[in-house]
Amino acid sequence: MNGKSLRLFTSSLVVSATICSMFVGMAIAQSARSLNPNLVPVQGKTVNNFVPKGWTIQDKVEGDINRDGKTDTVLTLIEAGTQSERGRALVILIKQPNGNLQRLAVANKLLLCSSCAGVLSSPDGAGTNIEIKSGVIAVSQLSGSRLARETLHRFWIDKSSQRLVLIGKDITDFDRANLDSTVTSQNYLTGQQIVQTFRNQKLVSTKKSPIPKSKQLIENVSI
To answer: HEC states along 103-168?
Structure first.
């Protein structure tokens, strides 16, 4: 087998392993339980009031989501227990003038389950990072193995409906060995998509195209 054939064979093995990992993740996702939004109270005094039986708080991020000067909260809930396949969900809470909390949204399709990120899964869930800045909630998730994917969703409160909507999504597919990558950025406010390809960490191509402007609720966004 010559050098070129060996490289192609190796690349095929990597791609095949990644595809297998994706199908395994999909099967696991189907077995993990989904949080029923009806079990999450509309109002409460503390964040613990919004945690249904059988679930626990995995993470808590605070920031001003509706830009009223008060500290709001994004909870990451995970199924209680020690099983490897556990469902996860986001509960977004807005602080009221009286200090109580009000449920703004429950996103039960957005987060990967505890072992759905493939090799990059951690013992208590997929690699997830959540930030609140300038009224925007950014949810980043990492999955895969050598061929990995980082998915970043951005949400803010739509003025007309006062609901959380998806305003942008970035998908970065990259090879963790050589760092070659493709970044697809979709902006639903401007209706534009930009696809950039990098080789040896250098930009080699940029393609722009129009996409439909949409107002997809956070409750309907699926990873």
So the answer is: EEEEECCCCCCCCCCHHHCECCECEEEEEEECCEEEEEEEEECCEEEEEEEEEEECCCCCCEEEEE
C-alpha distances in angstroms, 192 versus 158, 168, 200, 221? 19, 10, 26, 19
Residue 188 phi/psi, 5-degree rounding, is -85, -5
Q: What do you get for the CA distance between the two ends of the chain, in Å? A: 40
| Number of other residues whose CB lies within 10 A of the CB of residue 100 | 14
Please report where in the chains the tokens 């909260």 appear, as a residue: 73
What's this model's pTM, rounded to 2 decimal places?
Answer: 0.85
Residue 127 — φ and ψ, nearest 5°?
-65, 105
Give the list of residues 6+ apart from residue 19 with CB closer than 8 angstroms, or none: none
Task: Report how far Cα 69 is from the mean position of its chain's Cα atoms.
Answer: 26
Cα distance between residue 194 and residue 174, in whole Å = 16
Alpha-carbon Rg of the chain, whole angstroms?
Answer: 19
* Helix residue ranges per DSSP H, the chain: 3-31
- pLDDT tens-digit series, residues 115-169: 888 887 666 666 899 999 999 999 999 999 999 999 999 999 999 999 999 999 9
Helix then strand count (H, E) for the chain reads 1, 12
Q: How far apart are CA 130 and CA 59, in angstroms?
A: 9
Report yes or no: 196 and 204 within 8 Å, Cβ to Cβ.
no
Tokens matching residue 106: 């429950």
